[in-house]
Write a structure and sequence with these properties.
The protein is mainly α. Helix content is 83%, strand content 0%. The chain has four helices and no strands. The longest helix has 35 residues, at 91-125.
Length: 126
């Protein structure tokens, strides 16, 4: 089991990173598509601008989490929670928010697992 744990930790970290890339990439594709072929006018009120800022922050935080897992994960999850509270959508909307939260949850699990693993190896060294 001691040999398997580092492999599992590495898999967890890369799952978080790949899922973060997929979610952030999908957001970028949506933004580019809207710039190339706008379906409506520019954001017209503060609510729309706040939604854009929260989603952009959540996506940027996924890249921050590559270096600092917990701060990036928390920023991403808090931004998504604020966006969900701000925009009251239907089930499909909340399912999309849940999918966007997967990288933040995986980064949080990675941080917890690595912190627990480091603590146990430190105790064994004594």
């Amino acid at each position: 089991m001691p040999v398997l744990l580092p492999v599992l930790l590495s898999v967890l970290r890369w799952l978080a990173r790949i899922s973060g890339l997929l979610v952030a990439g999908a957001c970028v594709l949506l933004w580019v598509g809207d710039l190339v072929n706008p379906h409506s006018g520019p954001p017209s009120n503060a609510l729309e601008w706040a939604g854009i800022v929260f989603i952009a922050t959540a996506c940027a935080a996924m890249f921050v989490a590559w270096r600092w897992e917990l701060p990036g994960a928390l920023l991403s999850l808090l931004s998504l929670a604020a966006f969900a509270a701000l925009i009251r959508g239907d089930r499909t909307f909340h399912l999309a928010i849940l999918v966007m939260a997967i990288p933040g949850l995986l980064y949080s699990l990675d941080w917890l697992a690595r912190r627990g693993h480091a603590g146990r190896s430190h105790v064994r060294a004594r």
